[in-house]
Amino acid sequence: MLESMSSVNIISAAVIALVIVTSVAQSDDGNMDNVARFAGVPGVPGSPGSNGSPGRDGRDGRDGTQGHKGERGEKGTRGPSGLEGNAGGAGPVGSRGEKGSSGRKGDSGKVGPQGPNGGTGLKGSKGEVGAKGAKGQQTEALNWKQCVWKREDDKDTGLIQECRFKKIHGNSALHVAFGGNLRVYCGSGSYCCSRWFFTFNDDECTGPMAIDGVVHKTNTGDNPLRHRQIEGYCENIASGDVRVGFNIGKCSGYSVGDGYTGWNSVSRIMIAEVPPAQQ
Description:
Helices cover 12% and strands 28% of the residues. By secondary structure, it is an alpha+beta fold. It is rod-shaped and about 205 Å long. Strands 1, 3, 6, 8 and 9 form a 5-stranded antiparallel β-sheet that branches.
């Protein structure tokens, strides 16, 4: 490369010298003799000049033919996890899975509020005849009695009617009742009261209290003849014959009134022996 550049430089120097000589000769009125007179021996070639600036890059060459497929490289190290992607859309419904095993029994829930009454249900079919029950204890027939009369009694105090009764059990009670017409009448400008009551063997009931009824009236000139009912239960009466009496007398705190029993109607005393009361 250096040798080529030296030859170029020598040729360039020779051409320059020739140009100079020719120019001097032409300036001297074309006298060719002067050219011969001034021409000398060629000088020593100059030193090589500095390199010029680099040229432009050449154009890209054409693509070469595809090479053979290289061998598979080694597996690289696992890269870091990427960012979580957005949730995908719902997928299609999968096929029904197999039935799982039964879970444990849950705790009992709280009792809810009572719901509304339901409608009347359909009538059920007739059930089978049940087994015959055990023989029950034989019960006694009801022990009862009534005494009936039809008369008018205007007494103000004393026994109106007596009815005898045979009591079987010592711990039983007697249910007594009177039904009939009762009236009390008072004089002008006064108040009056009459009391009707039961006795048992001439004594009023003490088990638990007396069985009675009162009629109170002010003087208004009328005569209140009315049907009335007096009844109750009496305990602590011994078994055997019992004289049940229906009586009339004065009210506590009042004088004897003008009483009247059984006007124009039937009167009756009803007696029944009943089991003892519950405790």
